[in-house]
Each structure stands twice: as structure tokens, then as C-alpha cells.
Amino acid sequence: MSKPTVAIVGRPNVGKSTIFNRIVGERISIVEDIPGVTRDRIYSSGEWLNQEFSIIDTGGIDLGDEPFLEQIRQQAEIAIDEADVIIFLANGREGVTAADEEVAKILYKTKKPVVMAVNKVDNPEMRSDIYDFYALGFGEVFPISGSHGLGLGDLLDEVLKHFPEKTTEEYDENTIKFSLIGRPNVGKSSLVNALLGQERVIVSNVAGTTRDAVDTPLTRDGQDYVIIDTAGMRKKGKVYESTEKYSVLRALRAIERSDVVLVVLDGEEGIIEQDKKIAGYAHEAGRAIVIVVNKWDAVEKDEKTMNEFEEKIRAHFQFLDYAPIVFLSAKTKKRTHTLLPVINKARESHNLRVPTNVLNEVIMDAIAMNPTPTHNGQRLRVYYATQVGVKPPTFVVFVNDPELLHFSYERFLENRIRDAFDFAGSPIKIIGRARS
Ligand SMILES: Nc1nc2c(ncn2[C@@H]2O[C@H](COP(=O)(O)OP(=O)(O)OP(=O)(O)O)[C@@H](O)[C@H]2O)c(=O)[nH]1
Ligand SMILES: Nc1nc2c(ncn2[C@@H]2O[C@H](COP(=O)(O)OP(=O)(O)OP(=O)(O)O)[C@@H](O)[C@H]2O)c(=O)[nH]1
Fold it and tell me: Taking every annotated instance into account, which residue ranges of this chain make up the domain EngA-type G (predicted)?
């Protein structure tokens, strides 16, 4: 299900990142640290009154050497393209500035709801500083203070009012939604074309929450698929489309709407740091993952080449050890037919539920084989485990003290679970919980 999206715009220094962090709350900090993956804090999720939404800090989208005004203009346009509701943020301590007026001018052009918030109103006496902002014409002005956490509730109440009607599931639940991510030029568009082949369906604009998203349907062997955000893979001529942060944002949104994510690599050029970062996003999102090595036609090879490349992938993407690897060529179409069955399998793993009794046998056997660790004289005790969810499969392990369940032991349990059940292509999550 795609969540509504909120974007924060405003000139520099009004406090966009402060507000973003407030709204995102603890979420970012609890995400596990993956070595080599730096987090761009431009896109995350928030929750208010049980309503989940995605949030974008357009200020975090670095638009290179563009002049100052051009940058904020482009950021406002990104907000218009990507969001369902826009928070226009200004600074109450400085009043309405020329740059605020520039942002306003861009926002007048959109039909999307804009909620005006004035930040740095740190105490009630300062509330009179906000009246000038009514002149910008966005209706009610919400005084807030990011540093003191004031006024955010009222602001979010207003934002929520403008969310689109609850969208029903975009596609039938049997339809497999997948996206292709990877750095520029690895051959994502070529691969989509290769998959569509003769049966190329006219690209239809299926309305998602992002008006701009163009998804491409595909049916093969009786299975329906939708390739998510094929438009985002093509350059559409807007200035900011080519900036790295924007393509990351686009990819993150596509990942979020997908069941399965294809991480596309260039077999000819090999693996570079950017690939790792992109793969990290897919992993963190908890989607099923397939690694695709494209341009395999262009690689000079002997019988060892594929194994060697696979070893390289495993060494670089240790966190993706569950992802199957498919070598193919979008250009010659060699082995492209092997891809969809692997996608089907990954989706199946992502939805797999295992019986509690068998799961507990596996866990108890694991413990017998490799006794639980001790820490400061205290031994970890594992009582039982149960699967609490799918997409990704999530297991709660009841223990005496979750602090004692270290990453390495968790990893060991994960591997035993994987040996016992076929979760190929899917991440699995283990949560330690104290038995009450
Ligand atoms: N007094 C006061 N200062 C604030 C408040 N919110 C943010 N600030 C300060 O304003 C400055 C800018 O905040 P940021 O959140 O970095 O602003 P930004 O809009 O994201 O800036 P850019 O990243 O340059 O676009 C920081 O020094 C913050 O500490 C607030 O509510 N009150
Ligand atoms: N040799 C070879 N070249 C390929 C293959 N697939 C794509 N290419 C070439 O790689 C280049 C980039 O392909 P695209 O499909 O545009 O790559 P992309 O990942 O969609 O690129 P962006 O739109 O920039 O993100 C083109 O020149 C393709 O002809 C392949 O399997 N083998």
C-alpha cells in the first residue's frame, strides 16, 4: 500500500531538517547500521494519529552549483512533483523575506494542498510575529518551534486533513510489483524493454499517490506483474532529474511501492561504492531482493568468471547474502527469461509463513548445537519463538533479556532458520523480546 507523502519546502535555515527529524522521531536512529551505507536524511516515514506517511526534506536535496534562488525553486518543484501535501516552512524571527515570496510563487502553481508553518516561534509572546505570513495567501498559518517541539501536533492535524482518500490497494494482491534500481547506465531501461519484448504493453499511467509515477504492467505465464515507476528510470528533462539525491529519492519511493527490488549491476564495469549504497537502501526497506548482473555479453569470460563475480558480490554486499544473483544481458536477451521465475520465488519467500512448532524445533536444535552466549556472567535464555509477520518474515524470539541477544547470535539463529526453511530472496527480521 502506498503511503501519502508530505514534503517540507522553504528557504535555507528556516529549520526544515529540524522539523523533519522531529516528525520522523526515533525511527531513523533505530535502523540498524550497515557498514558502508550512509544515510541521506531526505526521506523517511512519520506517523501521526495512527496514520503513516512518507516525508521528504527537500532542503536535503543538493542541487549542485545552481544559484541560490534556482535551488529553492527546484526544491519547491520537487515537492510539487513528489508530495500529496506540502508544508511550506518559514522563519518567524525574520518575517516574510524575498526568498519566501519566491517559494510561494512556485507553490501558487500547484493544486496540491499547501500548509504554511512558521518556525522558531519558541514562546507564546512571539505568536504575533506570524501575522505577516497570512499575506502569502495559504490560509491558516501554523506557528511552531522545532527546537522546543511546539505546535507540531496542530500542524500535523492540518496536514492529515489534506491526505487523499484512503487509497485501496493499487493492484490486485496477486500481482507482483517490482522495481529496478541501480546507478545510471547499468541498463535498467534496456532490461525493462527486454522483459516486455514482443508483448510490449503501452505504458499506462496508473494513478498512484505520485502523479508522476508510471508503472508498466506485464503478464507472463499467467502471472501478472507491475514494474514500478518506469518513468523514474527515464530522464524527463527537468533540471533536477539528474541530481544524485533526487534519483535516490525516486528510487526509495519505488522501493517502497515494490514487493521485489532488482538491484541492477553492470557486469562490464564491476561493482563500485554507489552500487553498495543503492543496495543498502533496498535491504533497509525490507523488500525481497534479486541481484541482477547485466551486460554479461560484454564480459570476457571463461568457466570461472561467473563464480568469481559472485564471490565479489558476496564480499561487497555481505548484508545481501540472501539475495539470488542472475547474470544476463538485456542487449542480447541471453538469460533474461531466467529472471521472472527468480522474482516469483523471492516474492514467495517474502510471504512465507512457517509453523510455530517446526520453528521452535529448529531454534531449540540450534541452541543445543551452539549454546547461548553469556555477558557479565548472565546467560542468554531463549524460551520460544514465533513468526509475527511477513513481507519481510519477522520472528519474535522470547528471551530472558533482549540485551543479551547480540547481533552475532541473532545472525546464527537467522542462518539456522534459513537452513530449515527456504527464504531465498527475502530478508528476515528477528526481534528479541523479554518474556513477561
Ligand atoms: N530558535 C529556534 N531555532 C531553530 C528552530 N528550529 C531550527 N532552529 C535552528 O535553525 C537553524 C537551521 O535549522 P535547520 O533545520 O538546519 O534548517 P534547514 O531549513 O534544514 O536548513 P538547510 O538545510 O540550509 O535548508 C539551526 O541552527 C537550528 O538549530 C526553532 O524552532 N527555534
Ligand atoms: N553490452 C551491453 N550493453 C548494454 C546492455 N544493457 C544496456 N546496455 C547499454 O548500456 C547503456 C545504458 O543503458 P540504459 O538501459 O539506458 O541504462 P539505465 O540504467 O536505464 O540508465 P539511466 O536511465 O541513466 O539510469 C546503453 O548504451 C545500453 O545500450 C547489455 O546487456 N549489454
Answer: 4-167, 176-351
CB-CB contact of 138 with 102 (8 Å): no
**Cα–Cα dist 350/345, whole Å:** 9
The reply to whether ligand 1 has any atom less than 6 angstroms from the CB of 145 is yes
Rounded to the nearest 10 degrees, the angle between the axes of helix 68-82 and helix 244-257 is: 10
In terms of Cβ atoms closer than 10 Å to its own Cβ (0-12, 13-18, 19+), residue 53 is: buried
Indicate the class that CATH gives domain 176-349: alpha beta
Give the per-residue pLDDT at 31.
Answer: 36
The order of strands in the sheet holding 394-399 is 382-389, 394-399, 429-434
Q: How far is the CA of 240 from the centre of ligand 1 (A)?
A: 24
Asked if residues 231 and 211 have their Cβ atoms less than 8 Å apart, the reply is no
What residue owns the CA closest to ligand 1's atom 2? Answer: 120
Could you report the predicted ipTM of this complex, rounded to two decimals? 0.84
How many percent of the chain have pLDDT more than 90? 61
Confidence band of 33 (pLDDT split at 50, 70, 90): very low
136-176 residue pLDDT tens: 999 999 999 999 999 999 999 999 999 987 665 678 889 99
Pocket of ligand 2 contains residue 27 by CB under 6 Å? no
Please, which residues have CB within 8 angstroms of residue 293's CB and are 6 or more apart in sequence?
A: 265, 266, 267, 309, 313, 325, 326, 327, 328
C-alpha dihedral (366, 370, 375, 381), degrees to nearest 10: 30
Ligand 2 in reach of 297 Cβ (< 6 A): yes
Question: Which residue's CA is the closest to the ligand 1 atom numbered 10?
Answer: 15
* Contact in structure between 181 and 255 (CB atoms under 8 Å): yes
- Which CATH number among 3.30.300.20, 1.10.3720.10, 1.25.40.10, 3.40.50.620 corresponds to the domain 356-434? 3.30.300.20
More confident residue, 335 or 170: 335
Cα 58 to ligand 2 centre (Å): 29
Which helix (H) or strand (E) covers residue 106, if one does? helix 98-108
Q: What is the pLDDT of residue 234?
A: 66
